[in-house]
Amino acid sequence: MTVLSRRLINRLGAGIAGLAVAILISAAPAGAAPQMLGLVMTDGPVELRCEDGTCRADFSGFCLQKDRKSPAFLTPYYLTQNQDVRLTLHLADGTTRELAAASHISLRTKRFYAGVEISLPQSALNKFTATGAAITIGKRVTAMPVAVEGDLNPLTPADIEAATGRSRTMASAWFDNSSGPAGAVKIFARAINRTTVNDRLTAEERQDLWQTTLATLPDTVDDKALSLATGHFGLCQKWLARKDLTFGLRQCLEDQHDDIVRGLNRNLWRALKPGS
């Protein structure tokens, strides 16, 4: 059995186990602060989907501190005010308004460091007489874990300087572009935000969603990125053709996205080694 098949077949059980671990961690005394995260630059605004009083979308993240633990499921993070993240509001009169996003949004991890949900209350749209909203991630954006009372190993100024300095600058070369694996990550992020957790689509519907995603790509996404992403999507088509699986397209897309992110992160750590 391949690594991919084991991961996909065990996805549901792993998710339940992960939730249980997250609950246990939240009930236990605080340990050490988790990793600071980089957020991958987006090629333009990402529309938030509003339902049940919250507007949200998933964004790609990566680890900036190899020696700290990965964040647990739904770990809260925040942006400092100087981060290049913009909130675009679609106003009722057809115009748009752009704001610095940090004070309006919430961040929490979905899949360790590779998937980060950004959200804001739908009531915030009413405040601005807006009908919708979108988020744009700029270059070299870093997310900080929310401090927990009793943390035995909190982030220090030296930790923050190291993660936001040379590490974040070098990470831009691996993540903040649209070529090869970095471009494939952006393609999968777009596709993920076109799905819902409960999607159970036919092969034709999955292919239509994929083609619709590719049709929205900017010219900066190169052929290497497209080829890599399409190959990984083909694996999803193959595995989702099985009738005994409990997961849907979104879960498979997330797995493929996260595999590519982990590979890029390994490349980053090698590049950061002394003498590299």
Low-confidence stretches: 1-29
Calculate the terminal CA-CA distance, rounded to whole Å: 36 Å
As a whole number of angstroms, the C-alpha radius of gyration is 19 Å
> What does the average pLDDT come to?
87
Taken from the alpha-carbon principal axes, the silhouette is globular
Helix segment tally = 9
What are the secondary-structure elements, in order, as H or E? HHEEEEEEEEEHEEHHHHHH
Major beta sheet, specifics?
A: 6 strands, antiparallel, barrel
Helix content: 40-55%
Strand order of the largest sheet: 1-4-9-8-5-11
The count of domains is 1
Structure summary, number of beta strands: 11
Helix/strand structural class: alpha+beta
Determine the strand fraction and express it as a percent band.
15-25%
Secondary structure topology:
Blueprint: H1 3-9, H2 11-27, E1 37-39, E2 46-47, E3 49-51, E4 54-63, E5 76-78, E6 85-91, E7 96-100, E8 106-111, E9 115-121, H3 122-127, E10 130-137, E11 141-145, H4 157-164, H5 166-175, H6 180-192, H7 203-215, H8 223-240, H9 249-272
Antiparallel strand pairs: 1-4, 1-11, 2-10, 3-4, 4-9, 5-8, 5-11, 6-7, 6-10, 8-9
Helix pairs in contact: 5-9, 6-8, 6-9, 7-8, 8-9
